[in-house]
Amino acid sequence: MRVAYDCDVLVIGGGIVGLATAYAITRAAPGTRVTVLEKERGPARHQTGRNSGVIHSGIYYRPGSLKARYAVRGAAEMVKFCAEYDIAHAVTGKLIVATEKAELPRLHGLVQRGRENGIPVRELGPTQIAEYEPQVRGLAAIHVGTTGVCDFVAVARQLAESSGAEIRYGAQVVRIDRRPALGVAVRTADGAVVRGRVLVNCAGLHCDEIARLAGDEPGMRIIPFRGEYYSLARPELVHGLVYPVPDPAFPFLGVHLTRGIDGDVHIGPNAVPALAREGYGWGVVRPREVGVAVAWPGSWRMARRHWRYGAGELRRSVSKAAFTGAVRRLLPAVTPDDLIPASAGVRAQAVLRDGTLADDFLIEEGPRTVHVLNAPSPAATASLPIGREIARRALGVLAGA
Q1: 186 pLDDT exceeds 80?
Q2: Which of 15, 135, 189, 393 is close enough to 48 for a disulfide, judged by CB 3.0 to 4.6 Å?
């Protein structure tokens, strides 16, 4: 059967990972026709455009994992990319601060992990902390010099422009017809049909739904976690980036202080279950999406395993005083009046059937498809090498088609 293909590779999702994939494909295989479908009216409207803008060093991630490899490599590449295209960025370094004795072994563990990942780390005592951040208090800290900040939305726009791909905005996918012998046909909400030889699913918050539309069971569900932020009314209190020592049992970094590329200091995020995949406030509720989360066995197993942690996060969500208390562990001078509500983000967290929160990037292949099923932070930092890996897989599928 002869098929009139609209493109060779059809990418669903116009966030930074989808656009980096399109960019990588056209560079690795010039002449490959790539189309990107994005349901919003512009790029980077969700995870990419609603984070703190941090270029992560890779110090937190298990040596040898995709997160560790791609974050370390991606941080250097992101700085170079921003410099090449004159995108706002700065390599500021950051402090990871232990405020309790119980955190000291975990802090020392991060030093070792950083060295294993090839990241330069400097250990600090209380006096040395004050040299970097006079208002921050702690028992000990480490300074990670390769951390920075940038404008990831501008990066996404540049990737779209430089990729040479056809970018279709306002194109929400509602149906996928995959035929292994032929390719894929995607119908969008406006009735348009786009035909491609290979489908790449970079749909972020909706990636599991897209996988199922394509006929693949992903073995996970996206459980959305909202991260709520405040801006600091007295930004002079913080000079750079300050993080707590994270809990290794949970894939969130805790409430931290980030001086962004705009000069404002952003405080957060916490991590609370969202009542919609794009639930940027408690008032956004989508019963069908809540039902999908509740019906997934992994949601209940995750809740039983992490309910104490979750209760603390919920308390900080509904109580500004509790949130302020968390911040004051690092920054004692802060008061509730210093915290100004800011835009929230939602993390697309893959939860497996057994309740495990996927702690690494998760990329799976099916007939004529490549699915990116877990790519939360540090995916923006790591987007250039992630894009190359997805492109490698997509071009391999294309070659065998």
Answers
A1: yes
A2: 15
